[in-house]
């Protein structure tokens, strides 16, 4: 059971790290090429679409599974604890920075230039950090699997 939980945590962490990486290297640079209305309406659409069971399963599942794995995997525990900590940091960044920015963008009206100016640079910067910490969490969990096997 411990191995199954750890591997599930690795898969979920990899998926969520990949998502934030994709935002950092393709979604946001792609939206940045558009005009203010395109940028704002594009982000609004993404913010609505992303709140779905598949995303929530991986987004919440990765840190939850890593937390459970801390207690089930005494051997590679330092790696699992580090991975769990990174994934919790990803949740905190999302809850403290990303979601409030997304909410403000969603209810901000139609002054697209002002909305974009208040949103884009901050969101992009914090998303890069979120991509880094979730990738670090994924890497730590992979190290835990490798330590467990070797």
UniProtKB/TrEMBL annotation:
Q: What InterPro entries does its record include? A: Anthrone_oxy
Transmembrane segment boundaries: 48-72, 79-101, 121-146
Q: Does the keyword Transmembrane helix apply?
A: yes
Record key words, sorted: Membrane, Transmembrane, Transmembrane helix
Q: Which Pfam families match?
A: Anthrone_oxy (PF08592)
Would you tell me the protein name for this molecule? Answer: Membrane protein
Per the UniProt entry, what species is this protein from, by scientific name?
Answer: Amycolatopsis rifamycinica
């Amino acid at each position: 059971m411990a191995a199954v939980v750890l591997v599930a945590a690795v898969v979920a962490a990899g998926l969520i790290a990949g998502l934030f990486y994709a935002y950092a290297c393709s979604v946001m640079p792609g939206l940045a090429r558009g005009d203010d209305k395109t940028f704002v309406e594009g982000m609004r659409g993404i913010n609505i679409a992303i709140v779905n069971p598949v995303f929530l399963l991986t987004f919440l599942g990765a840190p939850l599974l890593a937390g459970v794995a801390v207690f089930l995997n005494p051997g590679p525990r330092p790696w699992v604890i580090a991975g769990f900590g990174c994934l919790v940091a990803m949740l905190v960044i999302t809850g403290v920075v990303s979601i409030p920015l997304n909410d403000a963008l969603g209810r901000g009206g139609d002054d697209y230039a002002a909305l974009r100016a208040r949103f884009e640079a901050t969101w992009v910067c914090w998303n890069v950090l979120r991509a880094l910490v979730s990738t670090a969490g994924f890497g730590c969990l992979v190290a835990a699997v490798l330590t467990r096997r070797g």
